[in-house]
Amino acid sequence: MQSENSPNNKPLRKNKKPRILPLCVEDRIILESEIEDADGAEVLSAATVDDEGNWVDLRILARGTHEQAPAILRGLQPGDILLHNHPTGDLTPSDADFSVASLCGKSGIGFAIHDNECRKIFVVVEPFIKEERKLLDVCGLKKLLETGGPLQKYLFGYEKRPGQVALMEAVVESINSSSHAILEGETGIGKSMAYLIPAVYYAKENKCRVAVSTNTINLQHQLCEKDLPLLEKVVGFPFVFCLIKGRGNYLCLRRLQELEDSTGGDILLDHDEVDQFRRLQAWANKTAVGALSDLNWIPSESLWEKLNSDKDTCIGAKCNEYKNCFFYTARKKAAEADILVVNHHLLFTDLNLRAATSEYSQTAIIPSYKVAILDEAHNLEETATQHFGFKTTSFGFQRMLGRIYHKRGKREGGVLQNIAARISFGEKGFSPEQRDSLIEDIREQIIPLRQEISDIGREFFEAVVNFVMSKQVPYFGEHKLRIGEQQRSSPDFAAVLALAVKIRDEIQVFSRVLKKLHKKISAIVESDEELLKGFEMPLAELNSFGNRFAEVREALALLFDENVENRDQYVHFFSVVVRKNARWPALHSAPIDVAPVMREQVFQKIPSVIMVSATLTTKKTFAFMKSRFGLDDDQSEKPPIEGRYASPFDYSKQSCLFIPSDLPEPSHPEFMKKTIDPVFEIAKSSAGGTLILCTSYSHLQLLHTALAGRLEMEGIAALRQGEMERHHLLERFKEDGNAVLFATDSFWEGVDVPGNALRNLVIAKLPFAVPDDPILEARQEMLEKEGKNPFAEYQLPMAAIKLKQGFGRLIRGKSDRGTVWILDKRLLTKYYGCYFLETLPAATLCKGVFNSILSKAKLFHAEWGNSK
């Protein structure tokens, strides 16, 4: 038997002889001890073959059978070897062993069988022996981009672009030299193909994986549905790519069966979830991938949370549905892929997991890779801030308690009700005494304690709301309050703190009670295979709450306990989101500086990290972004490769930038109202086809309310962010061709409307961050302590990059023409105005009183047929 994809292409033969297990004495003792603790049952472990051929870095992976091996393989790398013992002492590989060995060989991982005494070993497949790394041939790759080359053959309208070629050269240099790179490719140069070509060739020639990470779903879909399929035709050899999604995106067949078995879901489903559950049942029987994105509708969060794959309740290879599992099927495909397409959050989650443990078990998310290409890299600091911080919401806390137990009217639900129902009515094997004792524990102790915690939680979060809102009238939107020395000294904070301590302590007691219940039931059912099968899922879910409560306790300690180590490295704040009559409070602890964690978990772990974006420079330098990412460290052995690659578009001919000088500054109380009539006239000047970008929802709402009717009287449709899903809103905007779209934050980037449908862009004001934002405040204070100017070295560059992102929505192709209006005269009156203008593309600048420059805008659109 032979694995065709084995890096060493060595046959898997039954006639090889056992040899001495090449582990050091200490590792042998550890492994033998683990087998003894497992009563001689199978133990899966792994080692790494070093450059001298020694087997080192032994780690115990799992106890059980070799059926767990496929789940574990994802965390292993070429050059590792997977080990397991045969309790009988017969080292002859079984058919199942050969099946696992074949999977190992495809990934360059060895597979071996040893005896319980850890003396003899039978190597079924040798681990991949690292060959000399094959460097990329940049001259050969450049030929793909030549006029008349393979890319032009398959891409209609393709033209060779110097910026694309130069960007690809920098990517090749970064990969070949195992260096990091920070590269800015302006709109239109073809960034994705410039990095995908080297990525594919390097992965194939070196038998390794390359991760490509994005910030938005739109770009992921572009890579997987357009660019990579095209590249398969261009390169002339087969390669495999895979879009990796988080575990929670997949349906869990076992949890689905659990709901079906509980009398049609009556025990675990809420009344308003039944219809959606039936639809999901039908979908589960026909979907091939089982991913949320495969649905053409969105189920309620509470229902999907009961059905999705969850690491805390997953029992891996022991699950009856393991072979059909959507999540593990996706992971198996990922293990065989050359190119892994992920998002930044998933990438950071995986790196964090690897940093937290040396045992790469089935909880690993992304197969190992040698190169990471991070597109849309201007978002990395924000993503890292969210990912490496702590957030606890009232909604999430109460939902977690609801999963444990809830009662609505006469209807009960949750895992405790599920367990109680099984003990009382569904499962045999419990003595009357055991049944009565367990039901009494659940009904008389655990459920009342859960209710008490829920009540304390509501009281605590209500105190947070009162502390943030004080006596002010709650306007719609998000209210934030930083928790500093002044807030901590307030008498009202003492009440919040007391409740925080109380809920933290109650959670700890509750966790112990749940653990005790789990232990009691496990002791009864573990000796009865049928009984155990019926309780495996609810027990796994019951056990999972320990980790979740531990996370809540950790977040509470970090925010409220001043003795917690490294607490000063975070900024702590409360927030309250006000929507209609509802208030949604949350607690936050966000890292003030993400550079250290970026260095430790990203740049020091991955040999080559290549950051790409259309907006990484301010005033044509990378200094700001390098400092935010932690790439400005003078101690680093290799400085990052830098490169700026200009757009092929001629902005001076294709676009014109208008800045009115007679509108009030944004700080003026009448500013928003004074923009209403100008925005109407600007939209009329181009007969629609206008995107209006605001920096606040209140400004958006004011403009839309005042202008929607007036625009419609002119025959122009007025669309507003929030009235439908983002993707559908953009499609409607494109299809109409003459609409006006009022939008805010999320539309400043990721909006791609080539052609005439977007010919006029209005930016209401410069996108400075909200000055009292707690994270902004903390970072400015940090810069002040370092003797730096916070405005010049943080606020200004951040705003300039966002303005550049917004500006980039207009010109998306060589045939595009349009105008950009920035209604913020600070560009003309403030010393920092030139900073913004030097960061923007070189559009023709037209400034002056509004009516005068409006006439010039009308002439611009008339010349291109864009006006009435």
Tell me about this structure.
The protein is α/β, with parallel strands linked by helices and 868 residues long. The chain has five domains: 19-125, Cytidine Deaminase, domain 2, CATH 3.40.140.10; 134-240 and 337-389 and 591-648, Rossmann fold; 247-329, no CATH class; 429-473 and 482-579, no CATH class; 651-863, 3-Layer(aba) Sandwich (Rossmann fold), CATH 3.40.50.300. A seven-stranded parallel beta sheet has the order 9-10-8-11-18-7-19. Strands 22-23-21-24-25-20-26 form a seven-stranded parallel beta sheet, sandwiched between helices. The chain has a six-stranded mixed beta sheet with strand order 1-6-5-4-2-3, with helices on both faces. The termini are far apart.
